[in-house]
Write a structure and sequence with these properties.
The complex is a heterodimer. Chain A has one domain. Helices cover 83% and strands 0% of the residues of chain A. Chain A contains seven helices and no strands. Chain B has one domain. In chain B, 70% of the residues lie in helices and 0% in strands. Chain B is built from eleven helices and no strands. The two termini of chain B are 36 Å apart. The chains are: A mainly alpha, B mainly alpha. At the A-B interface, helix 1 and helix 4 of A face helix 7 and helix 11 of B.
Amino acid sequence: MSLSYPLQVVNLLAALLLLISFAMLSQRRVVGLITLFAWQGAALAASTAIIAWSTGQHHLYYSAALTLILKVIAMPWFFYRIVRQLDVNREVESMLNIPTTMLIGIVLVIFSFNLALPISQMAGTVMRSTLGIAMACVLLAFLMMITRRKAITQVIGFLAMENGLFFAATSATYGMPLVVELGVALDVLVGVFVLGIFFFQIRESFESLDLKHMEKLREK
Amino acid sequence: MSTGILLQIAQTLIAILLAPLLMGWVNQCRAWLQGRSAPPLTQPYRTLKKLFHKDAVIAHRASPLFRFAPYMIFSCMVLAAGLVPTVANDLPFSPAADVIALVGVFALARVFLALAAMDIGTAFGSLGARREMLVSFLAEPALLMVLFTASFISQSTELPVIVDTLAHREFAIYPSLAFAAVAFWMVSTAENARIPVDNPTTHLELTMIHEAMILEYSARHLALIEWAVALKLYVYSALGIALFVPWGIAPQGDLAALPLAILALLAKLAAGGAALSLLEAVFAKLRLFRAPEFLGTAFLLGVLGMLIHFLLEV
């Protein structure tokens, strides 16, 4: 351990990202999932800001701010609203039971740590050892998308995957100003996705909850 | 050497005497958080005193094991309290057992408790014993994984070396310990019969685990078991302090650091007890068949901690 303290904090935040990814895998309620997603965004924003501060890469400040605004404030707020309006905060039904999912998760983590080891040795950044964690986050979010049935949890899984990708980009190549543009572009994409699923959700709930639900909507 | 032995005795005595106080503090915090008026801080001492003055009632069919078990459980917990450094580090008794043996000491106490619970042959006793075994055989590997994570960092399974590495070397942030800390909290709720795995205040047959096992005990036997439970909570808190916030424990042979070490210990125990009761207030008790999932998660977090150690800290 010869890293400087800011980088140690980034390592800690990276570990936290992975921890939150696992917590999301094991979370049964949609609202809890959204809260965890917001925390993941917060950890990501904090780590990006610390990397920006400690390496002097000023453009990373923009991406940190972007993450903070979009993924910690705007999107969770949006999701909370959807959940409240559609009343979908019951237990998330998953294809596999939770312990099996967690076991697969551990295998994915070992796989991605091994995979990232040779790659991270080629990267020239100080943060290269966290690349394995970023890959693990991507794969875990992937796993969540596969094992969950509800559209809203799948979107959250997709966003969590984007978090992982963002972290991978920051830890492997912070020198590229492209990272900012990549982040923005992906976020816009995600926004479109969210809206698409939003309409899909309404359609789905109208099919299942028909008149009663429409009355509730009209009252508001 | 003689100061070492004196310190060892003093540290063990502090543990035995402070343990009911810690229990009282946790109960008090819990009562405040639930909006009840809290029992006094010294309530566990009064309960113990009351129990020691009563006459023991023992079932006709009880074997000698039933009478012997409380003494065994209590002495196991005293032994464990002697092993974990709380005030001073590297005392003469600590080379006797490393963290793996410490887990073994806990297991020994648990086996005796379960045997004594089944000894009388009531339905509740064997029900509690089975549940306890279900929970603890899953909690034990998770606890070992937590301890292994700390052992990998300090390259030793001896608790004094772990404390020395974490507290007195150059300060470093270990991300793996963040995982280990969460896993440790989960394991310690299971091992100490706290919410979310077990509820220490309930006597409802559907949910109780620990209380079902000690239903048949009374008077001095019950007092010893209650005291052992308090000691176990204290030892787990001390273990958590030694692994995750060891700053303040006096290094070997440093007598001048002792008063500060005692103050630090009291402050950390107070904060830890408050945090425990807060977490108990926040979480709901799990169904019994959710407990394996909960402890499986603890185990996975422990394994993840080790993986993170190899990725980030080697």
